[in-house]
Structure formats: C-alpha cells, structure tokens
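Forum: Protein Structure Q&A
Topic: Joint prediction for protein chains with partners

I've read a bunch of threads here and the consensus seems to be that you should model interacting components together rather than docking separate models afterwards. I'd like to see that in practice. Below is the full input, 330 residues plus whatever partners are listed. Could one of the regulars post the assembled result?
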Amino acid sequence: MSQILSPGTAAPDFTLPIAPDKKISLRELRGKPVILAFYPADWSPVCGDQMALYNEILPEFQKFGAELLGVSVDGVWCHAAFAKDRKLRFPLAADFEPKGDVARKFGVYRGNDGITERALFVIDKNGVIAWSYLSPIAVNPGADGILQALEDLPE
Amino acid sequence: MSMLRVPVSSQDHVQGEVQAEITLVEYGDYECPHCAHAHPIVKRVQKHFGKRLRFVFRNFPLTQIHPQAQSAAEATEFAAAHGHYWEMHDRIFENQARLSAAFLLELAESLGMAAPDLRNALAEERYAAVVKNDFLGGVRSGVNGTPTFFINGYRHDGPFEYADLVSAIEARAGK
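Posted by a regular:
Agreed with the consensus. Here's the joint model:
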C-alpha cells in the first residue's frame, strides 16, 4: 500500500482527458490553487454525493481563485454522462489509461479494487501540495478541510 | 472528525429545551428523498428521548440537482416569520412528491398565511440570505450530503435508520 503524498511535496505533473477531445495538464493550472478530488466512481447512488456537493460549493472555492478537478478511473464518456446528469460545472478527469496511473503517483490507488481512494489534495499556485487528506472510502469527506486549506494558503 | 462549527443559537429553529442533554442537528434539503425518509425517523427519535433531546433543523439545499429545494427552504423561513415554521417543515416533507411552487402557496394558505405574501417573499428572495447562511455554516462544518446529522456537535457518519440514530445518540449522550 503506497502512501498518500504529503504537504510540501511537489505535485506530480500529469495530463488527462477531461472530454473526448480535450485534455488538461496540471502544469497549465500553475499560478492558482488547484483542488484535486479523487473519488472511487461516477454514479454513486446518493443525492449529495461528493461531486454534487462540490458542485454546490463551487462558488466558495472560486472565492479563493481555486480550480477544482475531479479524478476517477471512469472513462470520458462515462464522466460526460455523469456530469450532464448531475449538472456539474467543473471538469472530471479520466485516469483511465494506463488505469489509475495518476492516482498511483499521488499514492491513492486501491490496486485490489481497481479504483482510486477517496482523497483530496490542495495544491498551491507553485504546484506544491499544501494539504492532503485520505478519507475512509465510504465516507464523503465534505469540503471543510478543503476550505480550511485554501484559507491557510499564504497570499 | 468533522465538528459542528456554528453553535445552536436563538437564530435556529429548535424543538426542545436549551438544557437538553442531547442536541441533534440535521442539515437537510426539502427535495431530497433521503431527508424525507429521515423525517419520520427523527420524529420517532425525538419521542424516544423525550426531554433529553432537542432537535435543530438547518437548510442545506442542493439546488443544482433539486430545483425546488431553495424555494421550499425559503418558504419555511417565511413560515417561521409567521410562527408556523415546524408545521411548514412537516407538511413539506410529508408531501414531498407534490413539491412545487403552487403547492408551497397552497400550504401557506392552509396554515393561515397569505399566499400572495409568500409569492412576493420568494420573488424578492427575502429569505435567500438566511438559507445561504445555513448552507455555508454547514459547508464549514463538514456537511457531506443530505441529510447530515450532528450529535452534540459530532458529525454522524453512517446509516440513519431509527436504530442507528438511537445507538449513535446513546453513545454520545452524557459525554
């Protein structure tokens, strides 16, 4: 079992698809805080699931100029259908091929289950991890930790 | 462990006594089916603990997936201003399948409030800030979906069927 990357570590760069014809690289987001939210799978069967919650809280994240990126091993078409259904207003990245590669680099892949952990990272404007959190897989971690971490970032 | 960051105050809608040993806070959404499911369970829990427990409800509308949730929450705040908060709260949950703008107005009428007043209050978003305030306090406390319960300030993670809530409350009581 690998360890979740801790604060002070440079966030590994990655490039992942966020739509069938569109990719995102972490380094493109330098200059503003980035929230990476790894979650096990699209379509968890509850209202208020983690991504729906973050969608609702998005304006609060944006007050800090932060970019939010959801990451799971689901493919882009799955993400697209999920995002449409939940009316998500932020991108979902597909850590699909090689499967879980980015999650492994961040130390949050569950090899036995073939899914990512439920893990959060706040990366500062210089690309360094400012805060990370590994949640029990069945517990939606909410957003209080993210907001606290954003608040604690130096100007 | 996520903790309730906004203490219960006179701004809250409370059932029960200030000195109650147990405070159960629910963050909920009037259009959320899980909250409607929890509604009668909370009633049973209140009955079970009697004077030992006070119950507080705060708004946490997930407006992106529940288009009626915000106006329903604002309608309960309107009802609160007219002394009918809990009746409005109960009737919305009991009739969730019928939730609509027209139904909220009908409910207001049936509780002796003027429907046009409610229509105006909703149109001018008179209670939007109150609802938003609940929502933001919930976010800072680690509300992670609806319903989210806090028992004496501690977030309750896990199922919220009657037996689950009773045992979680017993475990926290008197600590």
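The beta strands of chain A are 15-19, 22-25, 34-38, 67-72, 92-94, 109-110, 115-116, 118-123, 129-135.
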